[in-house]
Amino acid sequence: MLLVAHLAFVGWLTLRPLDVAWVTAANLQPFAGIKADLALGPGQAVRRIGEALALLAPLGVLLPMAGGRLHASTLGSFLRTVAAGAMLSLGIELLQTAVPGQVVDIDSLMLNTLGVAVVHLAVVPAARARIRRMKGVPKRAPLPRDEVPQGSTPTIPRVGIAP
C-alpha cells in the first residue's frame, strides 16, 4: 500500500503540466545539471540535488518490503532494487517528454537511482537481520528430521560414438 501511494505521489509530482513562460532544453549530458546546480551556490545546490536524491529514495526500502523475503541475497536484493529504481526513473523521464513544462534531465535519473541505492544499503540489510533476530529465524532453515541427505546425484558415464 505504501509503495502504491509513493508511486502515485511521484507520478503526480513529476508528470503534471507546469505553466511556465519558457522551458530550458533537455539535459542529456551527464553531470551538466549537477555542475549548474553547484554554480548556483551551496544552499541552492543542496536543495536541488537533495530533491533529486530523495524523490525515489523510499523505493530502496519499499521495493524489498513488497517482496517480503527475509532470506534474500544482499547483493541480489540490492541489484534488483537499484535496477527497478533506475527503470522507474527512466520511465518518468521518458514520460516527461510529453508533458508541457517538464524537461528531461539525465542527472535526475542518475541522482534518483543513487538515492534508491543509498537508502537500500543503509536500511535493508540491517532491517532484515534485525527482523530475523526478533522472530528467532535461523539463517538457513534446517532440513526436516525425516529427510536425510542422500549424497551427490549419480552420473551416467559417457559412451563414445562408434565409428
TrEMBL record:
Annotated region (Disordered), positions in chain: 138-163
Organism name: Streptomyces indicus
**Pfam families per record:** VanZ
Protein name (database record): VanZ like family protein
Where exactly are the transmembrane stretches of this chain? none
Question: What sequence ranges are listed for the domain VanZ-like?
Answer: 4-122
